């Protein structure tokens, strides 16, 4: 370096140096950015994803026909009247009286329309013991749950009059949504709100000072707030869902806290080693700052993998997550150095006396290194081959159940359990009228819906749907003459058994439709409904697995190769991350599919993994795992550049990062575990899967397998073939001189 000057030229180092020198400007720009992003997002409004855009295929075509026709489908409700025991039949006088009372009661509320008696629609079960009164809610279907209360009370009144002989229960889109909102509406929100205090509490224990603990949480929250505003703007191009918001909050809190933690711990470590405040900040910028950028870009690439699914819900989640990671990354390397420079020693304000004394005594004894991981690492480095065999063997054994993974969209009783009365009603309706609660819906559009050939085809379809065995009926047809559209409702054989119902759907699509409606020129007849939507979703998701996997793995490999200029590091990074994901899959299957220990998380009887979770977990975990991996490997590489042997560099890198990795992992595991306590089984699966994977990643992978594999490889860790030497060099900011001589000697300047 010319003129005795050591210069670090990396992006993170330059950003940190500028922020430290222009502290108020950096803080002001960040606050302005957050306020502007929120303001612009609020002004632009948010565009929510339409049902017609959720999926491609027949489900999308049917939704588009309905949208183009301007038909507003009302929320449909059903009242089940069923004899208790073996007594009454639908033909008996008391049963008829009860049906008439239900019709009169619901119609009298003024909240419903088109009330149909089972005696005119023939919705009476084969054994004659059950019947269905059907009607529609007035007004928009998406707000019907707010208007269904009077109808539910009216039905309950009739039930009270016939309680000893008949079971009279209401079910439908509006009543189910109201029930679930009442039972679980605050469930998810409470988990989101409790995540922040949990993270703050763990950080307080980790730092022993309130101000230091508040910084990561404050950065994460402001990054999330800014991203929420940006999401509003982006939603005009890519409509969003509430799920995208929840995932964005989860990911934003995790990476925002992690990145801040990495930076802050390195700055404190340098000051504890005797560096002055400015030098400590510069070293943190050049080391942890760089690791944050490499990690952030890798996580963004992983999240971008969701854009390859072709599923609008996943695309929204991927885009929102990508944005919050990028914002948190930028904030960590810009406003955080400025805040640390402004606060100086005041970052230690609000000390917790007992914790502080314990931490100071421990630091004095260990020199800032983890004694626990130091002891573990001593054994690992003494017998690296044995460590690899044992750790990898254990993880492969844990991953083994994933080979028999069964994925499906969870049924109502699987998702919410059988304790809710409306879930029991759902099962009773399906038992008495297989497929009646979730019929296939054929949306027929023709030039003239009343043309003789169209009417004949509709009649043939209705007859063949039953005679083919796809449905037991009754098949109902609703005409919309003005729009030349007809709805055909077909209860599927199999009912709530999604495998059997799926087979019935395929028979409708592949046999019944081509033989009837398919013979009319110019007629469209896509088949939609709950089962069809699940079927189309599974097909599309299955086709997206390979492209997403290839994209994420290839780009993560390329980023690791460019960031560390080592083919070996890039390969081992991918292999270790895949092993971590595989182990998480195995735990999910063992708990939720096979039921091993399921009672501990309230997951009895689920028997399957929800369809969207494996791909979602792969993308999220592959991204988040890189946080720890990049941070640890960067520290090992830094020590190696300073002249340590590979084995000594491994020991130094792992034990000096163990504290921050453990703190970050504990926060992630705690936050994800909160979601594992929710009532919905899909949320339990997501929370348990994420928490288990992070725990495995931060302990077995980073504490045992990574150092053992690197110890076995030795100097080959830094292997780069000559033919790859022309790749762009992203390691120029790794200056061993800065790390080795953090405090400038007399007459020497250290600049960032």
Throw out a few tags for this protein.
alpha+beta, 4-stranded antiparallel beta sheet, 26 helices
Contiguous helical run count? 26
Shape: elongated
Beta-strand percentage range: 5-15%
Low-confidence segments, given as residue ranges, are: 1-9, 732-752
- Spatial arrangement of strands, main beta sheet: 3-4-2-5
Mean model confidence by pLDDT: 82
- In which range does the helix fraction lie? 55-70%
Computed Rg? 31 Å
Distance between the termini: 13 Å
Q: How would you summarize what this structure contains?
A:
This protein has 752 residues and is of the alpha+beta class. It has helices at residues 11-21, 23-44, 58-69, 93-108, 118-121, 149-161, 173-184, 187-207, 210-234, 242-272, 277-286, 288-304, 312-343, 353-366, 371-382, 384-399, 412-416, 421-432, 452-467, 498-515, 530-564, 567-593, 613-641, 646-675, 681-713, 736-740; strands spanning 6-7, 76-83, 112-116, 130-137, 166-172, 407-408, 440-445, 476-480, 485-490, 527-528, 609-610, 750-751. The chain is 64% helix and 7% strand.
